[in-house]
Amino acid sequence: MSTALPEGYKIHANDPVKSKEGIRPLTTLERSYIQTFPRDYKFVGNKTDVEQMIGNAVPVNLAKFVGQAINKYIANTHQNRCLEIKFDKWEHEKRLAWCASEPIEYSY
């Protein structure tokens, strides 16, 4: 049986198991659950591409929480005002504005 531990790994006193016997690598699906991808998320690509996508991902729930916190901060600190961000590097000049907590995208 293949193990998730590198060849030559020695069990240490603080390891949760006392033997490498029965240890298996996580499946791609288990790795995606750890990163909080939705159970019905459809990955596209070969196994290597999917494993890399999962490994490099910011956990979905963390990204959602950060986005909500930023939105809440903007809504609370800029009530009754619009916060406008200009993106100069886009092919067509675009601006992103928040009024209260509603993001609004528009072009000039």
Q: How does this model look, in words?
A:
By secondary structure, the protein is an alpha+beta fold. It has two domains: 57 residues, no CATH class; 48 residues, no CATH class. It has a three-stranded antiparallel beta sheet, covered by helices on one side. A hairpin with a 2-residue loop joins strand 2 and strand 3. The chain is elongated, with a radius of gyration of 22 Å. It starts with 27 loop residues before the first helix and ends with a strand.
Overall number of domains: 2
Overall 3D geometry? elongated
Number-wise, the strands total 3
User: Going across the major beta sheet, what is the strand order?
Assistant: 1-2-3
Order of helices and strands: HHHEEE
> What does the oligomeric state look like here?
single chain
Structural class designation: alpha+beta
Number of helical segments with 4 or more residues: 3
Helix fraction? 25-40%
Mean pLDDT: 76
- Measured between the Cα atoms of the first and last residue, the distance is 62 Å
Portion of residues in beta strands equals 15-25%
Q: Main sheet?
A: 3 strands, antiparallel
Poorly predicted regions? 90-94, 97-101
Q: What radius of gyration results from the CA coordinates? A: 22 Å
